[in-house]
Amino acid sequence: MKYMSVPRSVVTVTVVYTVAMFWGVLVMLGCLVRMVRKGPKAFFTWNVLEGRPRCLDSRDLGIHGYVRLKRSGIQLHYVRAGDDRKKPLMVLLHGLPEIWYSWRHQLREFKKDYQVVAVDMRGYGESEKPAGRSAYRLEYLVEDIREVIETFNTFSHSSCVLVGHDWGGAVAWYLAMEYPDMVDRLVVMSCPHPGVFMKYVSSHPRQFLKSWFQFFFQLPFLPELVFKSFDYGGLYASLRGRRMGCKTPDAITDEDYKAYKYFFSKPNPMAVTGPFNYLRANFGTIPLVDMHGTDKVTVPCLLIWGEMDGALDVGMGEMSRQLAPNMTFRVVEGASHWVQQDNPAVVNTYMREFLQPSN
């Protein structure tokens, strides 16, 4: 692969961990304040959600299955809707902290026209969770999805519509650069082109502050503890909280939230550490992208952004045009970072317009 992770320099390690420890101190001070208010017992309470939520097995979402990857040996879980293998393939890649279920609205919407496969990325949901930070390096994530595409494609289709959100979007960007012949159309949500992120953060202090968690998650153990504290308060804050959570009432219902908590609360320590290792394995190790030509995404691309994204500025999406000349950029009014769940009707409409043969 062209885009292989590279070792961090001493300077990079020093800067990253200095900033990480700064944020770690601030986060712990916040936790201490909450412990004073709610008590230490509440802080150290995290309950395993017993009983599989029924929504995970809703028949209209598709059929559950597993694929054993030949290159890595890892088994990935997926849900497939639209059982006609002659239909074009659409592959859906979720972000952090999500699972395949974040694509429930798109599975229902596009199964009539596509063979839609929503994947649990390695480390998530019902997919296997390899131990160790290095198992989550970018090149392994890209190769996982490359093999998924090869597995579900038939002799009549050699490419797919690739859709990614958040970290799934990052994998989708890189796969489109590395293997453009495998991607017929690219749809990315809430994730800038990889060549934009560091450039934008370094020139926009507001985004640097928004990116605090990228540094904080470099620390061992503490991010997991904070995420699980107050009965998985970090998960709740991410998906349903005032700052980061969905803005549309009931975009993530109680039952939907249980679907996420069911997997993140599993006793397996990698249930949380695996997803967090995406940040640890790749932050500061991904090679810089050429802003002037060789790393441009040439396939037709749709980039969708929530107007009220609490993690990433809309300006990142605008800047991504520099590296995706065939890009259409859409902003969903009033939507959060979880745009495909916050306003699925608008997102699906934008996708349908983009996927029309005339486009």
UniProtKB/TrEMBL annotation:
Cited SUPFAM superfamilies: alpha/beta-Hydrolases
AB hydrolase-1 domain boundaries: 88-344
GO molecular function terms noted in the UniProt entry: epoxide hydrolase activity; hydrolase activity
UniProt-listed Pfam families: Abhydrolase_1
Top-level division of the source organism's lineage: Eukaryota
Family: Belongs to the AB hydrolase superfamily. Epoxide hydrolase family.
The protein's name: Epoxide hydrolase 4-like isoform X1
Gene expressing this chain: LOC118432475
